[in-house]
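Fig. S4 source data, part A: sequence.
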Amino acid sequence: MGAYLRERFPKLGLEGLERMLVRGDFVDQQGRRLTGEEPYTPHTFVWFHRELRDEPEVPGEIEVLFRDERIVVVDKPHFLTTIPRGRHIRQSVVVRMREQLDLPELGPAHRLDRQTAGVLVLTTEQRWRGAYQDLFAQRLVTKTYTAVARFDPDLALPRVVESHIHKQRGVMQAVELPDREPNARTLVELDEVGPLDAEGRRWARYRLSPHTGRTHQLRLHLNSLGIPIRHDPLYPVDLDRDLDDFTDPLQLLAHRLEFDDPVDGSPRRYESRRVLQLP
């Protein structure tokens, strides 16, 4: 079994894997610790918790906007992932709020990109999760975002932007495929235009209403209009920013969510208390 684990998980390194075996981090389906000397048996499960790096703390507080027995609605800061993944485990909304609220089954009804701040709905227990996740899956939630991007006086707004968005696993950027049927739709409206900045440019705040929920949809659609979102590290060019670089947050905010509660039918409306300032 030890030889199999060394071949299966080369990224752990021989030293790291041996250390985990000594600690008893690998267990079988019955919870028995594996030493690595056991005979390899196919079609069985081996469980382990991988070693975690020392994660720098993401700046910003997670503010609770609403809480009842079924859901917790929070105002997520930039740079914080919704769920534990990749190099961000402890520094995620789910892990932080499970500890802060003492809710071990807390989980997301939907997700926000790590770069995006704003309103996020979590369910307090597993039994409620399906009902609220279905709201988002069936597009029964009205979402409103705000974004800051350059002002283009020649751009006619409001307008609906449609395209076919494709995201390949393992590739950071998503792409728009012009020869495919649209699978993403966003209403773009102008909210406010700011004054000239030191470089003679004007920035504006835009109101974005997505009718679909494709990966990076809002970022791609504004980029396709020639007004990429301010401080976007991926569009139009991947700047290869370090994951622990917390400067210059993407100027995109999940401003408001509205839906009818799937359990009691009551109307729900939640707004972020964060504001994207115009330069």
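Fig. S4 source data, part B ends here. The longest strand covers residues 184-196.
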